[in-house]
Amino acid sequence: LVMREQAMKLVEPREAMKELGLNEHDVRFTSTLTITDNDSVAEMAEKLMKIFRESAQQHSLQQSSDGSISIADSVLVKVSESDENDKSVLLSWSLQDEELGSHLLKIIKTKFPTAC
Amino acid sequence: SEETKPSPLVKPVTSPTYLWGNLDVFELRDSLHQKGLMDAKVENVPNGFIIHIPSEDTLIQIDQTSTHIMCSNEILRNKIKESLIKCLAKI
Fold first, then answer.
1. Residue A12: inside a domain
2. Using CB atoms, which residue from B8, B65, B84 is nearest to A58?
3. Has residue B1 got a pLDDT over 80?
4. Which of A36, A44, A65, B30 has the most CB atoms at less than 10 Å from its CB?
5. Nearest to B20 among A25, A33, A59 (CB)
6. Which domain holds residue A88?
7. Chain B residues with beta carbon closer than 8 angstroms to that of A56
C-alpha cells in the first residue's frame, strides 16, 4: 500500500520499492545434483518434465530448444552430461520462489538416486 | 501397489520476503563464521565480491543489486539464506 499526495493505492511490492526509491536486492540460489542414470540428457529432461507436470501443475512450465526447463517466474532446470553414467541436474531459483524451488529439489532427490 | 504421487503444491502460506539495499559482505562473512563456517573468505572480483567456502564447495557471488548462492548442501544453503536475510533490509 503506497500513499502519495494524500491518496493511497495498492501496487506490487516491486513497484512500491521503485516508487520509494529503494534498490531491490535479488537473491538467487543454484544447486547441482549428480544423478546416476544411463538415460540420455533428453530422456532425463523428459522424465523431469513429467514429474514437474504432476508436482507443480498450477505453475507455468516451459521447455526451451536447448532442453532447459523453466517453471513459474524464476525456476530454471538444466540437465547435462556429468560422466558416462551420471547426469548433472542444475536447479536455480530466486528467493521469491523459495518454496517452489526447494520443494522441487526435494522431489528430484527422492525420485532419482544421487551420486553424492 | 499403487505408486504414490507427489502432492501438488499449494500456494505458500508465508509471504515472500523482499530485500533491498546493499549487502555488507564482511558482515555476511562474520555471520557465516559465527555459524561455524570458519573457512568462508571474501575475495574481490571486478563486479563485486565472492565469498568462497572451500570446505563445502560453495560460492556466493555478490554485487550491488544481487547475490547468487551456489550451494548443493540444503542445510548449508538454509544457513546462508538466514545470514543473508539478516544482513539486508527487508519489507
1. no
2. B8
3. no
4. A44
5. A25
6. 26-111
7. 8-9
Q: For B16-78, where are the E strands, in sequence order?
A: 19-20, 41-45, 48-53, 58-62, 66-70
Contact B85, B27 (CB under 8 A): no
In the predicted model, is pLDDT for residue A105 greater than 70?
yes
- C-alpha cell recorded at residue B83: 545470514
- Chain B residue with minimal CA distance to A17? B20
How high is the ipTM of this complex? 0.85
Which residue ranges form the domains of chain B, and what is each CATH number?
19-90 (3.30.310)
Q: What is the CATH number of the domain that holds A49?
A: 3.30.70
Q: Mind telling me how many Å the CA of B71 is from chain A's nearest CA?
A: 5
Does a structural domain hold residue A48? Answer: yes
From chain A, the residues in CB contact with B12 under 8 A are 99-100
pLDDT tens track for B9-60: 544 545 667 888 889 999 999 999 999 999 999 999 999 999 999 999 999 9
| Closest among B77, B15, B7 to A54, alpha carbons compared | B7
A30, part of any domain: yes
- Domains: count for chain A: 1
Assign residue B12 a region (left: φ > 0; alpha: ψ between -120 and 50; beta: otherwise): beta
Is residue B18 within 8 angstroms of chain A, CB to CB?
Answer: yes
